[in-house]
Design goal:
There is one protein chain. The longest helix is centred in the last third of the chain and has 21 residues, at about 235-255. The protein has about 280 residues and is α/β, with parallel strands linked by helices. An 8-stranded parallel β-barrel has the order 1-2-3-4-5-6-7-8. It has helices spanning about 30-40, 60-75, 90-100, 120-130, 145, 155-165, 175-180, 200-205, 220-230, 235-255, 260-270; strands spanning about 10, 45, 80, 105-110, 140, 165-170, 190, 210. The chain has 11 helices and 8 strands. It starts with 7 loop residues before the first strand and ends in a 15-residue tail after the last helix.
Length: about 280
């Protein structure tokens, strides 16, 4: 299996669309990567929640993955792709595709209609998918506010490590830091996915982060991590976290309250040269 040991900031990138027709716009991906590189972002997640992966066709998801992958190779950036949120045969196809082109890691949502209710059911589902990308590090995407899959992650991870050969960890997008902290063990990678508790997450022991605001305010997130980890400047880190949280609240208030459309608008306002378009239905712009 490919070696994968990522720490720091991984940006869950927006999927760019053409304004005039809403089709995927791959032309701006190179400029988008250059922007992230210039802001010292060394990892990218494609087709996640921020990237509206579940609103893309399988063909679109594979195309976007391929273009991002080429750009990431060119700039020596780690790339993970989210393959879940689709019918099982399509998820298997996306797993095979990710393995074939050689992405650094895959991330997978649970089945979203026939939802798993136990760790055993979730592991069985993921094991069947992971078998189609055996040499690629495999991660589970825990985001219960969207999936309504409320399985206790420490127990799930213990079981997944025994049953899935290429299982490496999870993306933990949940505000329950007690549960999240209990997932942290040597040899595991647990990505924190909640922007508003970055400071607390670092204090709890998290070292890897996938946060939408990395796209928009990467310097602020770098400063919070630096203050927490290297300077011991807790007061400064708290102040920057509070400022970030107020900014997030303002963005949501200004742009209608839905996370992805609001953040996409905020990105466009800050970086107008990167034309990423609007969001797809049923998300509202």
């Amino acid at each position: 299996m490919n070696n994968f040991n990522f720490t720091g900031l991984m940006a869950p990138v927006f999927t760019p669309y053409f304004e005039q027709n809403g089709k995927v716009n791959i032309d701006v991906i190179e400029s988008y990567v250059q922007l992230l590189v210039a802001n010292k972002v060394r990892g990218i997640l494609v087709n996640g929640t921020t990237g509206e992966g579940m609103l893309l066709s399988t063909a679109e998801r594979m195309l976007v993955t391929e273009v991002w992958h080429e750009a990431c190779k060119k700039h020596a950036i780690t790339m993970m792709v989210q393959i879940g949120g689709a019918p099982y045969p399509d998820v298997v196809q996306l797993a095979k595709h990710a393995s074939k082109i050689g992405v650094d890691a895959v991330l997978c949502l649970p089945e979203l209609y026939f939802k798993p209710k136990t760790s055993e059911q979730l592991v069985r589902y993921l094991k069947g998918i992971a078998a189609h990308c055996r040499t690629t590090p495999f991660f589970y995407y825990h985001i219960p506010m969207f999936t309504d899959v409320n399985i206790f992650m420490p127990s799930f991870m213990d079981m997944a490590e025994k049953e899935i050969d290429n299982f490496r960890g999870i993306k933990y997008t949940n505000g329950n830091l007690e549960e999240g902290s209990a997932c942290l063990k040597e040899g595991r990678i647990v990505f924190l996915g909640a922007d508003t508790i970055l400071c607390a997450g670092i204090a709890a022991g998290f070292e890897s982060f996938i946060l939408t605001t990395i796209n928009i305010y990467p310097e602020t997130l770098h400063e919070i991590i630096e203050a927490m980890n290297h300077g011991g400047k807790l007061t400064e880190a708290r102040a920057k976290q509070q400022t970030l949280n107020k900014t997030i609240a303002s963005i949501l208030s200004s742009y209608g309250g839905d996370w992805v459309p609001a953040m996409k608008k905020a990105f466009t306002k800050r970086f107008p040269s990167i034309e990423i378009g609007q969001t797809r239905p049923p998300l509202n712009m």
